[in-house]
Design a protein that fits this description.
The chain is mainly beta. It contains 2 helices and 21 strands. Pfam families: Porin_4.
Length: 380
């Protein structure tokens, strides 16, 4: 990462900042993920394509802070997502679609931030799942990224509180405003999360609720054109644990997403393009993920996960079985190569039109889909 540190005196000379005791910093950072992906079936044919963000979405950003004294800082993050294969903006062409927030952080009381931000399920629970980390990422997401552990959408107009670490215990909450004078609850969001670390053990839990997201009732609300589902209400909750055993880490994550007045599964920011129309009513996804990571050497690592998803959708009860495996080798502290494979099989779909649909790829024409990627990641 490139870091620039300016003293309070320097900032004053530039006419930018105030007190002489203050110190400010701005960090330029980013990650580029590019690969070649083979898919067994996309719309009826196999495909070999160049891809961006198979594991981690390509991004660059600016992160900064200003010391205000007494353990208080002003902080901000602006983070852009893009495709390395085409140079196009990600997140539906938003300039800072991944994150954009500003706030205050206290060493004693925690941080309060405002802007476009991750929900609490992503903040606290996702790190225990392979899809929420660099060990699995985009293609390892649960079907349709139904629990948003892979950040298919962020929360606009949000205010977030993040606590400090109290002996391994942390917690936080977020509220996303509808920004609608005539409908306070139309396209709003809120979430809660917590985590606890004790030696080799990590525990986490989270809850998120969206009201009328992904529908055309309020285009300036909390979740707009990158919503995974069009539904009157979406409730997602879950819990998980990781346990470290020497060079290995074992994990389990449970999540459930329940939809009321559901009308469709839309194209998410990650690229899934099922575009299914649902029968108005309820739908649900219950996910059980078992995962493991192992470091053979400081440079060589192997990770894998199995996820079973029991769904109720469009009048049927599809069952998803998904396996993911990744081997990564670090060429340096900032650059690594990886080999990633994902297999998904779905059964009991009836006449719903549901097929295998690995996150980030176009759907298969059958009930099975296999994808394999050899890729390169560079961090700066």
């Amino acid at each position: 990462m490139k870091k620039f540190v300016l003293s309070g005196l320097s900032l004053a000379m530039l006419g930018v900042a105030g007190a002489a005791h203050a110190q400010s910093s701005v960090t330029l950072y980013g990650l580029i993920d590019a690969g070649i992906t083979y898919t067994s079936n996309q719309g009826g044919s196999h495909n070999i394509q160049e891809t961006s963000g198979t594991v981690n979405g390509s991004r660059w950003g600016l992160r900064g802070s200003e010391d205000l004294g007494g353990g208080l800082k002003a902080i901000f993050t602006l983070e852009n997502g893009f495709s390395i294969t085409s140079g196009k903006l990600g997140q539906n062409s938003l300039e800072f679609g991944r994150q954009a927030f500003v706030g205050l952080s206290s060493d004693q009381y925690g941080a309060v931030t405002l802007g476009r931000q991750y929900d609490s399920v992503v903040d606290y629970l996702a790190p225990l799942s392979l899809t929420g980390t660099s060990s699995g990422g985009t293609e390892a997401a649960h079907p349709f990224d139904n629990d948003n552990l892979d950040n298919s959408f962020r929360i606009n107009n949000s205010i977030k509180y993040s606590s400090v670490n109290y002996g391994g215990f942390k917690f936080g909450a977020l509220y996303g405003f509808s920004n609608d004078s005539g409908g306070f609850s139309t396209n709003r969001a809120y979430s809660l999360g917590t985590s606890y670390n004790y030696g080799p053990l990590n525990l986490a839990a989270g809850y998120m609720e969206l009201n009328n997201a992904g529908v055309s009732l309020n285009s300036s609300g909390a979740v707009t054109n990158d919503a995974t589902f069009a539904a009157g209400t979406q409730r997602t909750y879950g819990a998980g644990l990781n346990y470290a055993l020497g060079q290995a880490t074992l994990g389990f994550v449970f999540t459930q997403t329940h939809l009321d007045n559901a009308t469709g599964i839309g194209a998410s920011a990650s690229g899934t393009s099922s575009g299914l129309t649902l029968i108005g009513g309820s739908a649900s996804f219950t996910n059980y993920e078992v995962n493991a990571r192992y470091s053979f050497t400081p440079a060589l690592s192997l990770s894998g996960a199995y996820t079973f998803t029991d769904a109720r959708i469009d009048g049927v009860s599809p069952k998803y079985n998904q396996f993911s495996l990744q081997a990564a080798y670090a060429l340096s502290k900032r650059t690594d190569v990886y080999l990633m494979g994902v297999y998904q099989h779905v059964s009991d779909t009836g006449d719903s039109g549901l097929t295998a649909d690995i996150n980030g790829l176009s759907a298969s024409s059958t009930n099975s889909q296999l994808a394999a990627t050899i890729g390169l990641r560079h961090r700066f």
